[in-house]
């Protein structure tokens, strides 16, 4: 099966706004959460305060990238150039990638908190882009290693520049199509403690990543999927994943979804305001 071949229409701001409003109305906070696992996770991780000071050096890099008007070649995965190449190249300013493609400081900080809370030493990110979120996650646990995969060579080169500027030595950047690299990287790293999926935002690619990952995780692996309401297709993929028998608990934070496979938890899907 070709995994990244379906382009999906992103929801417009009005539709997305309505979905978000629904989330706000239906979503819970720690009140009314009876699962001790989830209650503690929300209190001590999701809603825990962390000083932004810790990330000043990374944010200086984001600021620098937002001012960088050099044009680089980016690849649109999901748009097919030929049978053998699963992307189409186009030019884009680094500043525009930095403004539109990266997780916000608040969301990157949440990923940092999740990695720290569960003491994740082996982290995998699908979709590095300029490496800002990778840098956040790489700081969460001393002694951790973060493997991250990016398909556009020039984007990856810029990310490596960020890691070098921050003197980060625990990130291994793999350059190439995730569809081809995912299994070899997983064989090399072993079962990750945490996986952040933020690459090709389509139903088909998301379900493909999930299916492959299922064979390489263990019961304490946490998977985080970005932009689960970005399109109808992403939402369908999220709903399908929630129903999977191996999944115990899911947490829908609107802008991302968290999946647990832990034993001893009753199967439940939570909508959480964050
Ligand atoms: C939304 S950006 C990632 C943002 C990054 N995680 C962050 O928060 O800073 C998605 C990235 O995934 C890459 N990507 C998408 N599909 C891919 C594929 N099939 N193989 C490799 N990289 C892919 C894109 O080139 C893009 O740089």
Quick structural overview:
The chain has a single domain (13-52, 103-271), classed as 3-Layer(aba) Sandwich (Rossmann fold), CATH 3.40.50.150.
- Described by the principal axes of the CA atoms, the overall outline is globular
On the 0-100 scale, what is the average pLDDT?
93
Q: Summarize the helix and strand pattern as letters.
A: HHHEEHHEHEHEHEHEHEEE
Number of strands: 10
Q: Unreliable runs, pLDDT <50, ≥5 residues?
A: 1-6
Task: Count up the helices.
Answer: 10
The CATH architecture term is 3-Layer(aba) Sandwich
Largest sheet: 8 strands, mixed
Q: Determine the strand fraction and express it as a percent band.
A: 15-25%
- CATH domain topology: Rossmann fold
Instruction: Describe the strand arrangement of the main beta sheet, using strand numbers.
Output: 5-4-3-6-7-9-8-10
For the record, the count of structural domains works out to 1
> What's the CATH superfamily, by name?
Vaccinia Virus protein VP39
Structural class: alpha/beta
Hetero groups: S-adenosylmethionine
Q: In percent, how helical is the residue content?
A: 40-55%
- Terminal Cα separation, in Å? 36 Å
**CATH class bucket:** Alpha Beta
Radius of gyration: 18 Å
């Amino acid at each position: 099966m070709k995994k990244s071949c379906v382009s999906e229409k992103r929801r417009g701001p009005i539709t997305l706004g309505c979905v978000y409003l629904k989330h706000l109305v239906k979503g819970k906070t720690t009140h009314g959460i009876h699962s001790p696992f989830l209650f503690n996770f929300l209190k001590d991780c999701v809603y825990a305060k962390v000083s932004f000071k810790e990330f000043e050096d990374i944010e200086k890099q984001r600021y620098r990238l937002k001012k960088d008007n050099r044009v680089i070649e980016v690849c649109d995965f999901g748009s097919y150039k030929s049978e053998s190449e699963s992307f189409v190249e186009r030019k884009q300013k680094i500043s525009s990638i930095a403004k539109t493609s990266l997780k916000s400081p608040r969301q990157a900080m949440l990923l940092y908190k999740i990695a720290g809370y569960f003491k994740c030493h082996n982290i995998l990110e699908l979709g590095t882009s300029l490496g800002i979120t990778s840098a956040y996650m790489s700081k969460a646990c001393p002694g951790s290693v973060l493997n991250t995969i990016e398909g556009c060579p020039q984007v990856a080169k810029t990310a490596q520049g960020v890691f070098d500027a921050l003197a980060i030595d625990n990130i291994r950047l793999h350059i190439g199509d995730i569809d081809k690299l995912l299994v070899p990287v997983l064989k090399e790293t072993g079962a990750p403690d945490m996986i952040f999926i933020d690459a090709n935002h389509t139903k088909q690619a998301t379900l493909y990543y999930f299916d492959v990952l299922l064979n390489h995780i263990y019961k304490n692996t946490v998977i985080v999927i970005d932009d689960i309401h970005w399109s109808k297709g992403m939402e369908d993929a999220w709903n399908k994943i929630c129903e999977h028998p191996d999944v115990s608990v899911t947490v829908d934070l609107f802008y991302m979804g968290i999946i647990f496979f832990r034993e001893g938890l009753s199967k439940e899907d939570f909508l959480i305001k964050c």
